[in-house]
Amino acid sequence: MNRLAVVAARVLGVASALTWLAPTTSAAVDEPPTSSPTQVLIDAYGDSTTLGITCSDGHCGPQGRNAVSYLQQALQAHDGDRVRVTNYGVGGTMASQLRDGTGNRRAGPTAGLPWRERLAASPARIVLINYGINEVMQNQTPEQFYAAESSLVQTARALGKEPVLQTSNPMPDNRLNARLAAMVAMTRRVSAEQQVPLVDQFAYVSGLPDWKSLMSDGAHPKPELYRLKADQDYRVVEPLVRRLLDETR
């Protein structure tokens, strides 16, 4: 098996083993989120890099030190308990599955619903969207990815939500990463066309010195890189949170 096939098999193996996992909240609470006039709730949707998978010694699994939990820590340090982020990342999933409601049906009571119905039932004011890696692994075309992300953003806007797009972190394998770059270009295109805030993690991480040493395997960051990614998320999300909180005063 060549190196590309090994990387692909490993990433897909991790994803398939983790698709049963339920969503986690960075606040480590079990009750479903509820809204109040003075709260800003944020839903984070994405693949295993949203869920927070890290690999060590050949074993991969979700852990609390992920970008979503770090983002909540930063937001609550600045704005207190008025902000809450819920992690709906599911390993192995794609944007089209979120749109169609065909991803992991165990990830919350509304996970099997199409995006419009699921989002209509959510009290979240802001939705983070992070996909691209599994589109590469499942041989989707950039055009298919563009259509899925465009639909997710349009629906979120129609329902009064604030969508925020995130590009995927890069992948160490050069050939896979070149294909991922084409997906990243589609996310940037949707952001520009629909004037949606963008966290360009692909560009940021790619510019870090020796960034590959911060990856735990062919797709998933180590906790220290998740923290750096959360810093980038915070720069884009916190002004939105502050504006929404100001509107409630």
UniProtKB/TrEMBL annotation:
<dbReference type="GO" id="GO:0016788">
    <property type="term" value="F:hydrolase activity, acting on ester bonds"/>
</dbReference>
<dbReference type="InterPro" id="IPR036514">
    <property type="entry name" value="SGNH_hydro_sf"/>
</dbReference>
<dbReference type="InterPro" id="IPR051532">
    <property type="entry name" value="Ester_Hydrolysis_Enzymes"/>
</dbReference>
<keyword id="KW-0732">Signal</keyword>
<feature type="signal peptide">
    <location>
        <begin position="1"/>
        <end position="27"/>
    </location>
</feature>
<protein>
    <submittedName>
        <fullName>Lysophospholipase L1-like esterase</fullName>
    </submittedName>
</protein>
<dbReference type="Pfam" id="PF13472">
    <property type="entry name" value="Lipase_GDSL_2"/>
</dbReference>
<dbReference type="InterPro" id="IPR013830">
    <property type="entry name" value="SGNH_hydro"/>
</dbReference>
<feature type="domain" description="SGNH hydrolase-type esterase">
    <location>
        <begin position="44"/>
        <end position="228"/>
    </location>
</feature>
